[in-house]
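Researcher: Let's try something more involved. This one mixes different molecule types, so please make sure each is placed in the same coordinate frame as the others.
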Amino acid sequence: MGSRASLLLRQEEIEEIQRETGFSHNQITRLYSRFTSLDKSQNGALSREDLLRIPELAINPLGERVVQLFFLEGEDEQVNFRQYMRTLARFRPLDPSQKNDKEGVNSREKKLEFAFRMYDLDQDNRISRDEVLQVLRMMVGVNISEEQLGSIADRTILEADTDGDQRISFEEFCKAMERSEVEQKMSVRFLD
Amino acid sequence: MSRNLGYDSSPEQYWLRSSSSPVGQRDDSSSRDGDSMDTESFEIRFDVENDCIGSCQGPAAMAKSEGNGNGRNRSKKHLPEPQLKTLEVPTKADVKKKGRRWSSRSVGEDFRRKLFAGGNFLDSDDDDILMPTDDEDATEEQILINIERQKEIISSIRKQPWRMKKKIRCLRMAQDYLSRYEGKLSKKRGYQEATQRIWRKVKRELANFAAFFIPWETRIKMIESYFGSVVASYFIFLRWLFWINIVLSIVTMSFVVLPEMIVGLPYGSIPRKTVPEPEMDRAQHIATIWDFGGYLKHSVLFYGYYSDRRYLGKGGYQLPLAYFMVGIGSFVYSFAVILRKMADNSRQSKLSTGEDQFTFCWKVFCGWDSLIGQSETADNKFAAITTGLREAIIEEEEKCRVEKRYISILLRILANFLIVTLLAGSGYAIQLVVERSEQFEKMDPVSLSWWEQNEVSMVVSIITMVFPVFFDLIGQMEKYHPRTMLRWQLARIMVLNLGNLYTLMIALFKKVNNLAEEARKARTALETLQHVSMNISLTTQQNVTVAEHIQDVITDILSNKNQTDLVDVLTARAGVKEQCWETIVGQEMFKLSVFDMIATVVTTLIFDFLRGLFVRFANYCWCWDLEGGIPGYGEFGVAENVLHLIYNQGMIWMGAFFSPCLPLLNVLKLIALMYFRSWAVIMCNTPHQRVFRASRSNNFYFVLLLIMLFLSMLPTGYVMVSIEPSRNCGPFSGRRRMFDIISETVKNSFPGWFTIVLSYMSTAGIIIPVIMLLVMAIYYLQSMVHAYKEANNDLRMQLEYERTEGKRKVFEMSAAGPALRKWAGTTRNKNSQDSPAARAVTNSGNPGKPHNPGTPSHPGPIPNGRVPSGASTLPPRFHNPGPRHNFAAGVPFNRSMSSKVRYIPVRQYMNPYDGMILPPPIAPPRFRRVQYTPQPGTRLMAVPTANRMGGGSQMRRSSTCSRQGSRPTSVLVPEGYELVQVHVDATDDGQSSQETSFVDDDFDDTRSNRSQSASRL
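Model: All components are placed in one shared frame. Result:
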């Protein structure tokens, strides 16, 4: 499995990705083999459906949003391996020792930023009430009445919004998430 | 210690990055990477043309370039110091060997080689790969670091884009170093490292393993995710009680039950350990077993079986003393445990207050945990998010609700009235039942129906089952917040349960007293009889007819010398049964406990399971919506269930003295309850309509438990000190009071003075002062607590204030961004040079613009060309503009040297106030410009001023060779350093040669201004 992947993947490419994402050599080859197995059409790139077959994303109620973010890295409707790795790197768990490390792709700031983009559906750098509502609907389904969802959305905006524009900007988002454990929740275990 | 932290990924990552960057070949993707690096790094630029000696890279970068994560603890120190430590400094031998060559090599190359002497940055094809010096007196620490570094080189040398020749040489040198020094290093050291690593791993694994063994953890978590924290709190409470009962039963078993079984007399040896003759034929009946009569009654289960001999067996085990001490000890232990738990809880609740500033934001934006990879867990998490949101909504709704005061007050009065009536009714009913049971007692047990036999426990159980439902209905009309409602509900059920228990206890004691009364009557009758008959037989022999009947008795009596048997005989004759009342109480408690379990199971099956089945399946053919309307599915009643647990525990505490095996029974019962309840909850119940969050510290449960413990201790205490124990059974038989065992022991086993001391201690003269002292202590502590509370509040407010205020300040500063830009513009004009850094500061608002990879630019926190609006104000916070700007502004940007620019990430620290990135708290180095005309055969060195004074030539940190030309140039020298000209060619011993220092105080005004403003940031 790994040998096949490493055959297809050139050494320089691995190094490049390693440098860019901080994954280890083994992880990259492993993820590459997973990439190829996800790639049903065998054209070296993944489509939306392929990505949603990743079990972690399939069970994540916000999985579609995450998938959407894979595509933000590139322009077209396909994700190549580099883009795939770049997005996955955001989910690399943060080593407790590098907690104050700001530079890594998997740093707390980068994770926050990724989360922000996940909720910012129309990509205008503000999370509006409607966007919160949509996210809420994805998260709780039909278990909570629409009216209550509305009040939750209102409360959420109210809590985080400091400049009074009824929307949440990235700074406000960061401030609200300041003492939360985003870095732990936005992590996926990758095998070594 | 911290050496291995962060070792895994970062050094390698950095290495690859920086090994490619000097070459200047950046493809598309790596330049993108470079962008993101720019955010966190500021550059260092060596401009050969101007002979600039630069030294402003961050200490962390330095440490990283060393190839280990040692920079972590150093990054907090000031700038120049760590570099001095980590830099490889050529020793004299080195200089001797290489001094000539250095003079002829290009300056930048030389400097870089020295700067990154870790061996990782050997991107030139030179043959001088710097190995760790052969310093004989290097510390073990140093050698260890070097060894690790060499190992890393070996492991990753294949990935280097070098020539094979160089790779081989490098590898050889590394191996050579290892072979030389690895042995030198004391083995202990290596082992220590290895053990530490293994130990960390083992510890983590153990923690995982331990979590696996917390009983019912997953079960509780699952229930919590579906039913909310309140329902889960019941199960957590149950588990906690389970642990208490485990301890209680272990203690009782090991100190009371097992000794009795091992060294005590066996069954059937004495009358009290044998089933009496008349009961023998019924001993095996199911009804007898159900009553815990027959063989069970005469077994270790109950008080009556235990022997009263002071010393048991060969070892002389003092069973009565042990029995008494265990009885007291279990109360003391329970008290201690509950109080400790409460203190713990309140401490936790203190810690967790003030965190609900962004409740909804957290719930919405970081609800999902991406680590979840299992679909079942995902379902649970999904449910948990929903439940959590619903809890939060309820909290919010309750905060906003306006009360209609008069109506609700009226309703509440009515409700309380109804509840008092109900409580009184229940008390009366129990009283009645117990009285009836006394009558049944006198009748023949065979003629009684099943109901009549079990009336007491049945009625008590039914009341405990049914009344809470009424309470719940009544409570709903009070319209409290659900949590307050739960508390009221809990308090009421508690009163009900206590009332029941006490009525039962009082009734039982009455029965006991009656029994004792009868026994006493019989005894006095016997004694007078004996006395009279003796007189008769001695004095009036002729009056035989009168005494004939009595004589009969006497012969009977005389045949049995034993005093207790005397009573037995008499009671048998008089038709009075003297029973072992302690055993009766124990039996009653045992029966109650078992019956309670059965009732729980039955009612749950009927009210939850069958109802659920009915609702589920009859709904297909019913005329109204069964599921949504009446009856609907059952809800899990937290209040009654928690109270049920407390009540149950109270029964155990009350009965444990009379039936030592009761805690063990309770352990089994709790296990069964845990499984049964959790099954019923998941199977038959729906989550509450209004899910509310359990308060973080469920101290209310524990307060109730404490009250219950106190109240259940009272009867036992009363029995111990003021009721005469049964004369013919149990460990205390023959003593006037159970408590006497202690005074007996003190008298027999302790020295005489101790008894005297004790007797003094128990006089009023001592006791009253002690009580007063205690009261004073309580008062003092109380006032202290009050003061601490106030101080606590003040501190919390201060913290809150500082947090918000600190944030405000940072935002103000970010608003000052435009001012800074303006300033940048002025400096640029002043210098009349196109400084790229200044341009970068100015342009940072629109990073979509393509830029030179060498030009530092603010990329904006969000790639893809989109920048949040606030980003334009970020540069002063994201960068340390001070040093870079100084550099760039002072030195004309040279395009040809741009490929030599290095990016060195700087470890930055988290601002405790708002999580924004700030530059490390380093005073930005200041530079002065020194005019200098190079002389052939000399080289320049920057030497720390302080060090030069001290004369430590080892600390020389950077050097640059002069070029052959003698054109005057200006050199920037960092503050705290002195420029020294060294004649290298003159002698081999360069260090001792003539040194000329240039001291120039020409500080650039604008620069010092700039650094002031930067340090203010």
